[in-house]
Amino acid sequence: MSMMHEDPICSIFFGDARHAFVPYQYKGFSALQKPPFNSLARSMGLKQLVFLRQTHGVYGKVVYAHDVHDALPSFVHDGDFLITATPQIGLGIATADCLPIIIVDSMHKVVGIAHAGWRGAVAGVGSNLLVRMNELFKTMPEHVTVYFGPSALPCCYEVQEDFQEHLRLSPHASQSLIKRDNKYYFDQGFFNRKQLELVGVPSEAINQTFHQCTICNPRFCSARRLKSEERQMTVVVVR
Description:
This protein is an alpha+beta fold.
């Protein structure tokens, strides 16, 4: 069952395989025009729903009020995070083992969402999103609430021993890799949480209630488990 969470200033939808879609099939369309997005748009009261063409990087786009009238096309512009302060514009990302990160600034009524695959996480996509929110809207890390969505968890996220080379510049690399029965497992939730804490987000401000494993839980899309291009969506909207 999909999950809807109501924050004081926004609504967040954590989708699952029931609303699965293949991103490239929607390239160039307004996301509101087609299922499974149109029913979500009605239930969340959206005037627009924006997705980027995700590249596992650290850059993104700010969505302003005028973008509603431009019918911003889906999966065309490259980027891995979105920011808006405009009500009724849904910001979406597509995942199937990568980590959805939502940052909510209640003080300035701004939201941001990031797609954090391991490459993006290592490059700092979550902290980069927060820095951009600070530059544009004066978001302060000590005043945000962060939500982690469904992703691969360390119970199942097996990596090769040489994966630690990717983390060598991180101060919490050793704690992010778990060795079990001579195999290595990556804790991407812990890794991203520590990165956010390093830039000032309080640990108690990071909500992991919705951080469930996409690999061992069959209700979710999982690239590793299913070898499929289908993805689930996470959507946030300022009310």
